[in-house]
Design brief:
about 190 residues, four-stranded mixed beta sheet, 4 helices, about 30% strand, globular
Length: about 190
């Protein structure tokens, strides 16, 4: 009677992963120091590492970063024009460890402005979608979310989805300040409320 009625209405969900994967999301604000970056990427222990605000400006720079990681690397970089500052809050990377947990991966969507990246991969044999998104606060945040939603077409079927997002809710003077040593940054223009 009653118990079978309750069980019938419990929604079915995919079986849990037999093994766990570790995830990390870091806003690296450029990670411009090559010695620190090399050490950081070589010692990172995450199975899935998403880096936001890489500020990578060329394919050669992306390749340099990827060489310090042992695994697959995917990029959505805004290749800067000379008039754009280094600290333009752009660039997303998804790194997958060399673990046997991952099958071949493909990029489903890549923002040309370097705000989001979506990668499809089998994790322990299960179809999965990894989306990394960086959105500043204000109108750019809403635009980045809307663009990602329109651009990431989720394939049919069940997918384990990993959404890795850095989204500010309150504007801070630090949101417009570059910590990059190359070239020298302008001081922040703090406004008083």
């Amino acid at each position: 009677g009653e118990l079978s009625e309750v069980i019938r209405f419990i929604p079915l969900s995919p079986p849990p992963l037999l093994r766990q994967v570790s995830l990390r999301l870091h806003n690296v604000c450029g990670l411009r120091d090559p010695l620190f970056r090399r050490s950081y990427l070589r010692r990172a222990t995450a199975d899935i590492l998403a880096l936001l605000e890489t500020n990578c400006s060329s394919t050669s720079e992306e390749e340099e970063w990827a060489a310090d990681w042992s695994g697959q690397a995917f990029w959505a970089s805004a290749h800067r024009t000379p008039d754009q500052p280094l600290g333009s809050h752009r660039g997303v990377a998804i790194f997958l460890s060399s673990s046997s947990a991952f099958g071949p991966a493909t990029v489903l969507a890549r923002d040309p402005d370097g705000r989001y990246l979506a990668v499809r991969v089998a994790i322990h044999g299960r179809p999965s979608l990894i989306v990394a998104l960086h959105a500043d606060c204000g109108p750019t945040q809403a635009a980045a979310f809307a663009m990602a939603q329109r651009s990431v077409s989720v394939p049919a079927g069940n997918l384990d989805t990993y959404l890795l997002v850095d989204s500010n809710c309150v504007l801070s003077p630090l949101d417009h300040f570059s910590f990059s040593p190359l070239p020298p940054a302008s001081p922040p223009h703090a406004s008083t409320p």
